[in-house]
Amino acid sequence: MNPSSKVMCRYIKGVTLGEGTYGVVFKAIDRVTNRTVAVKKIRLGKYKEGVNVTALREIKLLKELHDPNIIELIDVYPHKRNLHLVFEFMESDLEAVIRDRNIVLSPADIKSYMQMTLKGLAVCHKKWVLHRDMKPNNLLLGPDGQLKLADFGLARIFGSPDRKFTHQVFARWYRAPELLFGSKLYGPGVDIWAAGCIFAELILRRPFLQGSSDIDQLGKIFGAFGTPRESQWPDMTALPDYVEYQYSPPQPFRSLFPTASEDCLDLLQRLFTYDPRSRISAQQALEHRYFFIEPAATRPQLLRRPPPRPEGPPKPLELKSPTEPFVFSPPNKARRVQLFGGDIRTAGEANRESSTQDFRDRGTPADAIMVPMSSDPKTALRPTLNSTDRTHLKRKLDMDLALQHTPRGLG
Amino acid sequence: MAANFWASSHCKKLLDQEEVSQVLPADQERGFTPEDVKLIKIQFSSYIKSLGGHAKVRQRVIATAIAYFRRVYTRKSFSEYDPYLVAPTCLYLASKAEESTVQAKLLVFYMKKIPTDDKAHRYDIKDVLEMEMRLLEALDYYLVIYHPYRPLVQLLQDAGLTDITPCTWSLVNDTYRTDLILIYPPFMIALACIYIASVIKEKDTRLWFEELRVDMNVIKNIAMEILDFYDNYRQIPEDRINQALSKLPQRS
């Protein structure tokens, strides 16, 4: 028996869970262990460049990372010229939790989610891996409530001296200010900033800083935390895309997160430190007193879970990160924008199916929403900080700053 | 050294000398001797290096490719996996894994440019891409390889010997003509190279090595292996190589 048919026999194919940019994901049963698994089928790019680099990156790094808070790559096998990645099956993701208005997130629940997120990150950073695509949608939840970091398609090994990276990583709302200023020599701080955004999102139950462009994103950040001063972030002015922003004062942290406890605020403040070099590390964050005082973090198995994903599309495992260098947000992110773009009082009731349906009627995700977070590669609407942008930057900045006076987020 | 070699798959996958230098049954049947296998590996390590030079990849990519090549042939026979195709494919896969992809098209172009016998010239993009999948499987999908280069820089700084960097660096490059990378932790290989370089350049490193508290026997074994390469394999007579290569199956 040839080896590939042997492995095909090992996994009994079930329903299709969704489709990503580089393949289909289906549910399957592992006959050897009786486990439910998710099999990601990697399409080979028309026989030109072999195994997709994104998939290769994921394989390479997940083979090195084994932790309860990181998605497990159980197996890889080739079949009919396609590579199949076998992952543990995950029921849901953090985005679904945040969006599900029937779920109340207590401070203890939030603490539990943050602890698991930071634990996963700490392991990555300890092994010199940057995730580079942290967002609620990539934090998957297992049947036992465990949160696991997934989608390492943008992740990289760091630590090589002078290696330049692209700054076009992360979905925009989770992008650290140094990335927005075009830094190419960055470190684990970029993941930490995103973790801060996720923390804030858990508290607020909506994406915290919803910029509509890179420039607007910086505007939103500065609008909340104040324009950084030279003393706060000495290297800022040396960054490639640095532009001076009109000074805006920081808002008191307390007013940004009215319901958060003192320790919670203190940790948030450390995660949102401007200077990446003084930003707290994942390990330090885990040792922060926030995690040691009452209320204790909810045990994962006691966390309330959203109803299981509907079978068939929409999607399961993240998987929508396209290949380098641009990072576009998956359409379902746009869906969420739409959700909150409307009336917040009815937003929670908005039905998932109907909103997806809505969407198809209205053409591309970008058409369907007022403020596109980013766009589909094909529509090419996504604003980036290119040189043309920069020449007009001042003008745009004025505009952005003017916009800032309107209430943020909910419009 | 890179902080987490000890937790890496590379570390867990380190092999014994015996496992590395054994001749697989399929190759034994074709009459390959351990010496033949050694020569073929040296030959193709050089080939990968010159192909990498044409494609202008970083030294790191070449080093990773050679490590892949050598690792593959601890499990797969030369009879089954044609080294003329495996070698360039290792470079292709390494270029992706090290985040500096060389286009398959270009690689095949350089393959045809390098003068070898015709065997390497009949492979095309399609073959490289097909072999890529088989290689991944043969490597059991473990792709992260640590190299002595990074620890080398740090160790030389620590020893205050940065002036012998070029000499030591070349020594490290030459270790890839051996199977050392599959057997020893990279920092040990770096230390052995420093050890040799300090003798060549007449630097007194005795005290520094003592303070390191590493097993000097291991370092000396590695150093012996490197010196053996220089003594016996620096120049290999062409007919000796050809004799070994002639045992490869004739592929149409």
Automatic annotation (TrEMBL), chain A:
Q: Which residues form the Protein kinase domain?
A: 11-291
Positions with a binding annotation for ATP: 41
Enumerate the catalysed reactions: L-seryl-[protein] + ATP = O-phospho-L-seryl-[protein] + ADP + H(+); L-threonyl-[protein] + ATP = O-phospho-L-threonyl-[protein] + ADP + H(+)
Q: Which UniProt keywords apply?
A: ATP-binding, Kinase, Nucleotide-binding, Phosphoprotein, Serine/threonine-protein kinase, Transferase
Keyword Nucleotide-binding set for record: yes
InterPro entries per record? CDK (IPR050108), CDK7 (IPR037770), Kinase-like_dom_sf (IPR011009), Prot_kinase_dom (IPR000719), Protein_kinase_ATP_BS (IPR017441), Ser/Thr_kinase_AS (IPR008271)
- State the CDD domains in the record: STKc_CDK7
Name of the protein this chain belongs to: Protein kinase domain-containing protein
What species is this protein from? Sphagnum jensenii
The organism that produces this protein has a lineage beginning with:
Eukaryota, Viridiplantae, Streptophyta, Embryophyta, Bryophyta
From TrEMBL, chain B:
**CDD domains reported for this sequence:** CYCLIN_AtCycC_rpt2
Q: Which InterPro entries match?
A: Cyclin-like_dom, Cyclin-like_sf, Cyclin/Ssn8, Cyclin_N
Domain Cyclin-like, by residue range, is 46-137, 150-228
Q: Does the keyword field hold Transmembrane helix?
A: yes
Q: Which domain of life is it from?
A: Eukaryota
Q: Which SUPFAM superfamilies match?
A: Cyclin-like
Q: Which Gene3D superfamilies match?
A: Cyclin-like (1.10.472.10)
Cite the entry's keywords alphabetically: Cyclin, Membrane, Transmembrane, Transmembrane helix
Q: Which SMART domains match?
A: CYCLIN
| Transmembrane parts of this sequence | 181-200
Is Isomerase found in the keyword set? no
| Family the entry assigns | Belongs to the cyclin family.
Specify the protein name.
Answer: Cyclin-like domain-containing protein
